[in-house]
Every structure is written in C-alpha cells, then in structure tokens.
C-alpha cells in the first residue's frame, strides 16, 4: 500500500467539510468593505470614511480554558473567548474592530468541533460589527494528540489619530470605573484547573463547567456608548496579571490608580476558588480579574454620566499623585 497524506494522519476532506459548514455563517459577518470571500490566498478589506486613520491590531488565544471545553465537549463559547480577548484589547485605544482572522490547530480534525468553535467567533463578530475574513486550520498529527485543539486569533481595528486613547490624558482626580466581567474570562485557568479538577461537580445548582465556560464579555457596545457621550482618558482590559499588571500599563509616571478592593463585586466562583485552594487574596488579584473585566478612567465631572449610561458599572477608585502606579487596598 502506498503512503498518502491521509495515512500520515491528515484528512483533507475533513478540512473541506469544515469550510462547507462555516462558509455561509462567516459570509454573514461581511460588509461592503470586504472585497473577496473565503478561499483566496489573502483577504481584502477596503478602508474609507476616515480623515487620518490609524490601524490598531491585537492577537491572543484562549489558553488552558480550552482544556475545560474539550473535556466537557462544549466548544461554541471558546470561539467567543478567542475573539473577545483580541477585540477587547484594541478597544482599549478607542478602536472599532474591522476584521478578524482565526488560527485553529489540532492533532486530528473533526469538522463538527472545528465548525462549532468558528461559529462562536461568527456570533461574536456579529455582535461587534466585525468581519471574519479569513483563517487557517492546521491538522498536525504528532504535534497535538487526537482530540487536542489550540485556538488563536488576530483582530484589526481602526481609530482616528486624534481620538486614540492611550492614557496620556489621565490626571489626578479622575475616577476609575469598573465594568464587570462575566467570570474568569480566559485567564488563570492553569490554577483554576488545579483547584477544580472535576469540571462536572455541582456548583450553584449546575455542573461547574457551565460556570467556568461562560465566555469572555464583549465590551464594544459599552465603551462606544460612553464615547458617544463623554471623553474617556484611559481604558484597561483586565486580563492575565489582574488589576496589578494591567492598570499600570495606562498610568503615567507620577500618578497612581488608588483602588479600594472592598468596592469590587467578586464573583462567587472566585471566592470559592480562593477558599478551596487556600489562595492568598493578593495572589487572587494578581492572577484573575476578580469580577472587573475592564476599567475606564474619566474626569470626575463625567463619572455620574458613565454610571447612568451603563447599569452595571460602578466606581472603585480614583487617580492620585504617587510613584506606585497602582495602590490596591485589599
């Protein structure tokens, strides 16, 4: 018997099936700016309507949250996570997402699983007025075990140059407002899985994996709703490293984000992890978002307006003078 690509572990037909299952749905994310369709070597996106446009890009993956999804055989939310981790990052600079590309790697491709992951991305793209214009599916036997998948994405957004948000306008007296997370989002899952090895155990009346797999919240509508009404001085996406690592990224030297952790609404699942795992509170805040998925910094005179615009937003601190960049009162 002669060797074939299929005998080496790569089934091209399964890849074709994946494309067939997602092609129509992916097309529904396209707009007039998308000039071609799936199948080309490159994706074309026409830019118009901007005076001095700046492209803002971001890339990320889902991390070991994938292990929870794969073991629980629930795949759609992972696609949302992948998109959200990229789109929320570029949102920190006031950018509107234009297009998204995905990369899906596995040991043995199952078109049903692959399609479910991508269709999650499709729904997230639709929610953010973003086009899913391309991607790559790589079947790599020997690199990944059968049943293993890895997912990454790449998002490009746009913002007028004079409207870029980079934290440079933050000043003492500004208020720090929290936008709640939907849970762990896509960070810290190596520790989550260590403390919660059984994803099927019951937590608050349902299997634990349902709580762990709640997808990363998308903040596009919230942020642009604020931007239509008031100026935002700074935005931080609270991902790996929690508040400690992410807020200082937008704080200039000589200023400090003074935050009162007692004002933060910590999700029950995080309190359970802290208790069961014997994790110190400072370690929790240095690993997880602790219920704060994103923060915005605004002039004190605009804080009430922001709180009125977003029902679930709340104030957690203010900008003061100091050398620490962040002071978290736990």
Descriptive account of the structure:
With 330 residues, this protein is α+β, with helices and mostly antiparallel strands. It folds into 2 domains: 5-160; 174-328. The chain has helices at 12-27, 65-72, 76-91, 111-127, 189-195, 208-212, 220-227, 242-246, 268-277, 281-285, 303-309; strands at 53-61, 96-106, 131-139, 149-160, 175-180, 202-203, 206-207, 234-237, 255-260, 292-298, 314-321, 325-329. The protein has a 6-stranded mixed beta sheet. Strands 1-4-2-3 form a 4-stranded mixed beta sheet, with helices on one face. A two-stranded antiparallel sheet has the order 6-7. α1 (12-27) packs parallel to α4 (111-127). The chain starts with 11 loop residues before the first helix and ends with a strand.
